[in-house]
Amino acid sequence: MTNNPAVNPKQQVAEQAANMVENGMIVGLGTGSTANLFIDALAQRSRQEELQLRVVASSVISHNRAIKAGLSVLSINQLSGLDMYVDGADEVSDDLSLLKGRGQDLVKEKLLARHADQFVVLVDESKQVRQIGEKHPIPVEVAPDCWQLVQAALQQQGGQGSLRPNAAGDNVFYSADGNLVLDMTFTDITLKNLNQLLSTLPGVVEHGIFYLLASEVLIGKAQGVIRLT
Ligand code: 5RP
Protein backbone atom coordinates (compact mmCIF):
# COMPACT_ATOMS: atom_id res chain seq x y z
CA MET A 1 0.00 0.00 0.00
CA THR A 2 1.36 3.46 -0.87
CA ASN A 3 0.52 6.16 1.65
CA ASN A 4 0.07 9.82 0.84
CA PRO A 5 -2.60 11.36 3.06
CA ALA A 6 -1.95 14.84 1.60
CA VAL A 7 -3.96 14.10 -1.56
CA ASN A 8 -7.49 12.87 -1.94
CA PRO A 9 -8.13 9.17 -2.75
CA LYS A 10 -9.25 9.78 -6.35
CA GLN A 11 -6.18 11.95 -6.97
CA GLN A 12 -3.93 9.25 -5.54
CA VAL A 13 -5.26 6.50 -7.81
CA ALA A 14 -5.19 8.86 -10.81
CA GLU A 15 -1.51 9.63 -10.23
CA GLN A 16 -0.65 5.99 -9.63
CA ALA A 17 -2.32 4.99 -12.91
CA ALA A 18 -0.57 7.80 -14.80
CA ASN A 19 2.74 6.36 -13.56
CA MET A 20 1.82 2.95 -15.01
CA VAL A 21 1.70 4.34 -18.56
CA GLU A 22 4.76 3.61 -20.70
CA ASN A 23 6.28 5.72 -23.43
CA GLY A 24 4.72 5.05 -26.85
CA MET A 25 1.44 3.70 -25.53
CA ILE A 26 -2.04 4.37 -26.88
CA VAL A 27 -4.14 5.07 -23.77
CA GLY A 28 -7.95 5.07 -23.57
CA LEU A 29 -9.53 7.74 -21.39
CA GLY A 30 -12.65 7.02 -19.39
CA THR A 31 -15.29 9.49 -18.32
CA GLY A 32 -16.15 10.98 -14.94
CA SER A 33 -14.50 12.89 -12.11
CA THR A 34 -11.80 10.25 -11.50
CA ALA A 35 -11.05 9.87 -15.21
CA ASN A 36 -10.67 13.66 -15.37
CA LEU A 37 -8.00 13.53 -12.66
CA PHE A 38 -6.24 10.77 -14.59
CA ILE A 39 -6.26 12.83 -17.81
CA ASP A 40 -4.68 15.76 -15.99
CA ALA A 41 -2.09 13.57 -14.23
CA LEU A 42 -1.20 11.83 -17.50
CA ALA A 43 -0.82 15.13 -19.36
CA GLN A 44 1.40 16.49 -16.60
CA ARG A 45 3.65 13.41 -16.61
CA SER A 46 3.77 13.40 -20.41
CA ARG A 47 4.92 17.05 -20.44
CA GLN A 48 7.48 16.57 -17.68
CA GLU A 49 9.00 13.39 -19.15
CA GLU A 50 8.42 14.31 -22.82
CA LEU A 51 6.57 11.04 -23.44
CA GLN A 52 5.28 10.15 -26.89
CA LEU A 53 1.71 9.13 -26.07
CA ARG A 54 -1.51 8.98 -27.99
CA VAL A 55 -4.88 8.89 -26.28
CA VAL A 56 -8.42 8.04 -27.30
CA ALA A 57 -11.48 9.26 -25.41
CA SER A 58 -14.72 7.54 -24.41
CA SER A 59 -16.67 10.81 -24.44
CA VAL A 60 -16.74 14.33 -25.82
CA ILE A 61 -15.95 15.67 -22.33
CA SER A 62 -12.80 13.55 -22.01
CA HIS A 63 -11.82 14.29 -25.60
CA ASN A 64 -12.01 18.03 -24.99
CA ARG A 65 -10.20 17.80 -21.66
CA ALA A 66 -7.38 15.80 -23.23
CA ILE A 67 -6.98 18.29 -26.10
CA LYS A 68 -6.93 21.18 -23.63
CA ALA A 69 -4.31 19.38 -21.54
CA GLY A 70 -2.09 19.07 -24.62
CA LEU A 71 -2.42 15.33 -25.23
CA SER A 72 -2.40 13.92 -28.76
CA VAL A 73 -5.93 12.59 -29.33
CA LEU A 74 -6.91 9.89 -31.83
CA SER A 75 -10.44 9.04 -32.98
CA ILE A 76 -11.80 5.62 -32.11
CA ASN A 77 -12.08 4.84 -35.82
CA GLN A 78 -8.30 5.22 -36.20
CA LEU A 79 -7.66 2.34 -33.79
CA SER A 80 -7.06 -1.34 -34.29
CA GLY A 81 -6.26 -1.76 -30.59
CA LEU A 82 -5.01 0.12 -27.53
CA ASP A 83 -2.50 -0.62 -24.80
CA MET A 84 -4.38 0.57 -21.75
CA TYR A 85 -7.82 1.88 -20.86
CA VAL A 86 -8.29 3.79 -17.59
CA ASP A 87 -11.71 4.62 -16.17
CA GLY A 88 -13.70 5.00 -12.96
CA ALA A 89 -16.66 2.85 -11.92
CA ASP A 90 -19.85 3.11 -9.90
CA GLU A 91 -19.43 -0.23 -8.11
CA VAL A 92 -16.54 -2.69 -7.78
CA SER A 93 -16.62 -6.14 -6.16
CA ASP A 94 -13.67 -8.20 -4.92
CA ASP A 95 -13.67 -10.41 -8.05
CA LEU A 96 -13.03 -7.25 -10.15
CA SER A 97 -16.55 -7.14 -11.56
CA LEU A 98 -17.81 -3.61 -12.15
CA LEU A 99 -20.95 -1.61 -12.60
CA LYS A 100 -20.67 1.42 -14.86
CA GLY A 101 -22.95 3.62 -16.88
CA ARG A 102 -24.35 6.24 -14.55
CA GLY A 103 -23.04 8.66 -17.19
CA GLN A 104 -24.10 8.72 -20.82
CA ASP A 105 -21.09 7.11 -22.50
CA LEU A 106 -21.47 3.42 -21.73
CA VAL A 107 -21.07 2.15 -25.30
CA LYS A 108 -17.64 3.67 -25.89
CA GLU A 109 -16.52 2.94 -22.33
CA LYS A 110 -17.12 -0.78 -22.74
CA LEU A 111 -15.76 -0.82 -26.28
CA LEU A 112 -12.44 0.65 -25.16
CA ALA A 113 -12.32 -1.50 -22.00
CA ARG A 114 -12.90 -4.65 -24.05
CA HIS A 115 -10.28 -3.91 -26.70
CA ALA A 116 -7.51 -2.66 -24.40
CA ASP A 117 -4.61 -4.93 -23.46
CA GLN A 118 -4.96 -3.65 -19.88
CA PHE A 119 -8.06 -2.15 -18.26
CA VAL A 120 -7.19 -0.23 -15.10
CA VAL A 121 -10.07 0.88 -12.88
CA LEU A 122 -9.81 3.81 -10.48
CA VAL A 123 -12.16 4.16 -7.51
CA ASP A 124 -12.34 5.35 -3.95
CA GLU A 125 -13.55 3.00 -1.25
CA SER A 126 -17.15 4.25 -1.47
CA LYS A 127 -17.42 2.21 -4.70
CA GLN A 128 -16.63 -1.15 -3.07
CA VAL A 129 -19.60 -3.52 -2.79
CA ARG A 130 -20.09 -7.16 -1.90
CA GLN A 131 -22.33 -7.71 -4.93
CA ILE A 132 -22.73 -5.74 -8.14
CA GLY A 133 -26.12 -4.05 -8.18
CA GLU A 134 -26.09 -3.54 -4.41
CA LYS A 135 -26.21 0.27 -4.55
CA HIS A 136 -27.32 1.12 -8.08
CA PRO A 137 -29.67 -0.34 -10.69
CA ILE A 138 -28.08 -1.93 -13.77
CA PRO A 139 -28.12 0.48 -16.74
CA VAL A 140 -29.40 -1.25 -19.87
CA GLU A 141 -28.94 0.89 -22.97
CA VAL A 142 -31.58 0.08 -25.59
CA ALA A 143 -32.22 1.17 -29.15
CA PRO A 144 -35.12 3.67 -28.92
CA ASP A 145 -37.78 1.55 -30.68
CA CYS A 146 -36.93 -1.53 -28.63
CA TRP A 147 -37.30 -0.45 -25.04
CA GLN A 148 -40.75 -1.92 -24.35
CA LEU A 149 -39.88 -5.35 -25.74
CA VAL A 150 -36.59 -5.37 -23.83
CA GLN A 151 -38.30 -4.23 -20.63
CA ALA A 152 -40.92 -7.00 -20.98
CA ALA A 153 -38.25 -9.64 -21.61
CA LEU A 154 -36.29 -8.50 -18.57
CA GLN A 155 -39.43 -8.46 -16.42
CA GLN A 156 -39.95 -12.12 -17.37
CA GLN A 157 -36.52 -12.79 -15.82
CA GLY A 158 -37.53 -11.03 -12.58
CA GLY A 159 -36.20 -7.60 -13.52
CA GLN A 160 -37.88 -4.41 -12.40
CA GLY A 161 -37.25 -0.92 -13.67
CA SER A 162 -38.10 1.82 -16.08
CA LEU A 163 -36.66 4.36 -18.48
CA ARG A 164 -34.14 6.78 -16.99
CA PRO A 165 -35.47 10.36 -16.96
CA ASN A 166 -33.34 13.27 -18.10
CA ALA A 167 -31.72 15.58 -15.54
CA ALA A 168 -34.61 18.06 -15.66
CA GLY A 169 -37.11 15.24 -15.17
CA ASP A 170 -39.28 16.44 -18.05
CA ASN A 171 -38.27 13.86 -20.67
CA VAL A 172 -36.43 10.59 -21.09
CA PHE A 173 -32.63 10.48 -20.94
CA TYR A 174 -30.75 9.92 -24.19
CA SER A 175 -27.24 8.46 -24.18
CA ALA A 176 -24.37 9.95 -26.18
CA ASP A 177 -25.19 7.35 -28.86
CA GLY A 178 -28.86 8.39 -29.06
CA ASN A 179 -30.27 5.44 -27.13
CA LEU A 180 -32.59 5.13 -24.14
CA VAL A 181 -31.56 3.62 -20.80
CA LEU A 182 -33.59 1.23 -18.66
CA ASP A 183 -32.36 1.24 -15.05
CA MET A 184 -33.16 -2.28 -13.85
CA THR A 185 -32.86 -4.21 -10.60
CA PHE A 186 -32.74 -8.01 -10.48
CA THR A 187 -32.97 -10.64 -7.78
CA ASP A 188 -32.33 -14.38 -7.92
CA ILE A 189 -29.96 -14.32 -10.87
CA THR A 190 -26.21 -14.67 -10.71
CA LEU A 191 -24.04 -11.91 -12.14
CA LYS A 192 -22.64 -14.34 -14.69
CA ASN A 193 -26.11 -15.29 -15.94
CA LEU A 194 -27.32 -11.69 -15.89
CA ASN A 195 -24.30 -10.62 -17.91
CA GLN A 196 -25.02 -13.43 -20.39
CA LEU A 197 -28.70 -12.46 -20.62
CA LEU A 198 -28.04 -8.76 -21.19
CA SER A 199 -25.18 -9.42 -23.61
CA THR A 200 -27.32 -11.58 -25.88
CA LEU A 201 -30.81 -10.01 -25.73
CA PRO A 202 -31.71 -8.36 -29.07
CA GLY A 203 -32.52 -4.68 -28.67
CA VAL A 204 -29.93 -4.19 -25.91
CA VAL A 205 -27.15 -2.00 -27.27
CA GLU A 206 -24.97 -2.22 -24.15
CA HIS A 207 -25.26 -2.67 -20.40
CA GLY A 208 -23.42 -1.59 -17.29
CA ILE A 209 -22.05 -4.92 -16.06
CA PHE A 210 -18.33 -5.14 -16.82
CA TYR A 211 -17.77 -8.83 -16.18
CA LEU A 212 -14.21 -10.26 -16.37
CA LEU A 213 -12.95 -7.14 -18.15
CA ALA A 214 -10.86 -5.31 -15.56
CA SER A 215 -7.17 -6.19 -15.29
CA GLU A 216 -6.75 -4.37 -12.02
CA VAL A 217 -8.55 -2.02 -9.68
CA LEU A 218 -6.82 0.74 -7.73
CA ILE A 219 -8.81 1.68 -4.64
CA GLY A 220 -7.98 5.00 -2.99
CA LYS A 221 -8.40 4.87 0.77
CA ALA A 222 -7.53 7.31 3.53
CA GLN A 223 -4.50 5.12 4.38
CA GLY A 224 -3.28 4.83 0.78
CA VAL A 225 -3.92 2.89 -2.43
CA ILE A 226 -4.92 -0.78 -2.49
CA ARG A 227 -4.41 -2.71 -5.72
CA LEU A 228 -6.79 -5.57 -6.59
CA THR A 229 -5.71 -7.94 -9.37
C1 5RP B 1 -19.69 6.79 -16.31
C2 5RP B 1 -18.98 5.94 -15.35
C3 5RP B 1 -18.05 6.61 -14.40
O1 5RP B 1 -16.77 6.06 -14.58
C4 5RP B 1 -18.53 6.36 -13.02
O2 5RP B 1 -19.81 6.97 -12.89
C5 5RP B 1 -17.57 6.92 -11.96
O3 5RP B 1 -17.60 8.31 -11.94
P1 5RP B 1 -16.73 9.14 -10.93
O4 5RP B 1 -15.29 8.89 -11.28
O5 5RP B 1 -17.14 10.57 -11.19
O6 5RP B 1 -17.03 8.70 -9.54
O7 5RP B 1 -19.13 4.74 -15.32
O8 5RP B 1 -20.50 6.01 -17.14
TrEMBL record:
It is an enzyme of class 5 (isomerase). GO terms for cellular component: cytosol. Pfam families: Rib_5-P_isom_A. GO terms for biological process: D-ribose metabolic process; pentose-phosphate shunt, non-oxidative branch. Pathway: Carbohydrate degradation; pentose phosphate pathway; D-ribose 5-phosphate from D-ribulose 5-phosphate (non-oxidative stage): step 1/1. Substrate binds at residues 31-34, 87-90, 100-103, 127. Homodimer. Belongs to the ribose 5-phosphate isomerase family. Catalyzes the reversible conversion of ribose-5-phosphate to ribulose 5-phosphate. This is Ribose-5-phosphate isomerase A. It comes from Methylophaga frappieri (strain ATCC BAA-2434 / DSM 25690 / JAM7). The gene is rpiA.
